[in-house]
């Protein structure tokens, strides 16, 4: 493989027109544990699977509040995610200070994308090794965006990133036509169902390794607490995706 | 020109306005807000520029006027237009609301005040957004107020009584315009730097409407003037 001739830095193209360093950075995102997001007309729900480095350690959080109307879920290098999180929080704060209103979501994602792209066009820098799912509400409506180390960003109705996320995406492909009109509870159950598809055989969802965040038109971003998570995971057993109701 | 304010010996700080605009009066009415300003820019006590159209439309549903140093007004109009253009830059169709402009201007004015180099203005931002009318006042210090009626300059002294007697926030557009015309009539009589040609503009659900300048009615045919009754007394 001659890949190694063209993958030393970001400022070298391969003959096929690829930037290998950027592609390798996207691999780092695929190594992170899964996080997914889905939205209805009124709510966005973020679900993630938290990893525990060892039995002695706590679980690594994957969802961070940026502002009352915006939150992110991360997959990839947590340290890089911290940098972007801090940047987004600062931008929101400055916007609020100047205009006394919430930073438009798409605009902030654009700014993050600009920042990410900048790292892909310099000899001395490396791309961010983290993908973000950005959930937000603004006058334009309810949003879910994905950002990439490449500096691209996309808006989604629902999306999953991280390891084994294809299984969750397959679940979404079957059921996303229902999400627009789903209630919050149905949305959360769909999210957890998708998450369940993506875990390994010997793993199980519990209130410790699952993180669910919700955001709505009249709902500031909050995490579900341990008891609420337990209740939803129990409800998951009898949740029928097609009818979106509990079945015995 | 040196912009570093540490070298304050070389950079001038605004201490007095040179070319000034007159009072601004703005009222909310049922369905929008209406703003009136005269069309005079004074050079000290000289009525130098007599047909200046001061009411600036900064975005589709926001208008901005101010009284005070006219060059500062022109600069602020440019600054606010810059913000509106940011929607083009980010390609997201999100335009600032009138309140966003008001807050931005308050921050800008406060920053300049802190540098002891103020924007020598009393600003009025008026607009209509998401079914709600908006009227804000930002003064030379960066104080920010939202209200149903705002006045700047001499109007604050002479016109508040007229406004409270003849206006309420749910009156019609024509009633509100009439109140503003009355106020400018009084101002023309009592404010040395006022002018009898004014311009009205209103913002409602349909958007911004800036009208052509009009002359306020003034009455000079009092019998006292015509018959010069008082003059007779003085020659006795």
TrEMBL record, chain A:
Localization in the cell: Cytoplasm; Nucleus
Gene3D superfamilies: Glutamine Phosphoribosylpyrophosphate, subunit 1, domain 1
Keyword Lipid metabolism: no
Claim: Flavoprotein is one of the keywords in the record: no
Residue ranges annotated for the Proteasome alpha-type subunits domain, each copy included: 6-28
Signal peptide, first to last residue: none
Main location: cytoplasm
One record GO biological process: proteasome-mediated ubiquitin-dependent protein catabolic process
A Pfam family per the record: Proteasome_A_N
Domain of life per record: Eukaryota
SUPFAM superfamilies in the record: N-terminal nucleophile aminohydrolases (Ntn hydrolases) (SSF56235)
CDD domains: proteasome_alpha_type_1 (cd03749)
GO cellular component: cytoplasm; nucleus; proteasome core complex, alpha-subunit complex
PANTHER family reported in the protein's UniProt record: PROTEASOME SUBUNIT ALPHA/BETA (PTHR11599)
Family listed: Belongs to the peptidase T1A family.
Oligomer status and interactors: The 26S proteasome consists of a 20S proteasome core and two 19S regulatory subunits.
Identification of the protein by name: Proteasome subunit alpha type
TrEMBL record, chain B:
Domain of life: Eukaryota
Entry-linked InterPro entries: Ntn_hydrolases_N (IPR029055), Proteasome_beta4 (IPR016295), Proteasome_bsu_CS (IPR016050), Proteasome_sua/b (IPR001353), Proteasome_suB-type (IPR023333)
Any one cellular-component term (Gene Ontology): proteasome core complex, beta-subunit complex
GO BP terms: proteasome-mediated ubiquitin-dependent protein catabolic process
PROSITE patterns noted in UniProt: PROTEASOME_BETA_1
Compartment(s): Cytoplasm; Nucleus
Keyword annotations from UniProtKB, A to Z: Cytoplasm, Nucleus, Proteasome
Main location: cytoplasm
SUPFAM superfamilies linked to this entry: N-terminal nucleophile aminohydrolases (Ntn hydrolases)
Pfam family, one: Proteasome
Transmembrane segments: none
Subunit structure: The 26S proteasome consists of a 20S proteasome core and two 19S regulatory subunits. The 20S proteasome core is composed of 28 subunits that are arranged in four stacked rings, resulting in a barrel-shaped structure. The two end rings are each formed by seven alpha subunits, and the two central rings are each formed by seven beta subunits. The catalytic chamber with the active sites is on the inside of the barrel.
Family in the record: Belongs to the peptidase T1B family.
Job description of the protein: Non-catalytic component of the proteasome.
Name of the featured protein: Proteasome subunit beta
Source organism: Paramecium tetraurelia
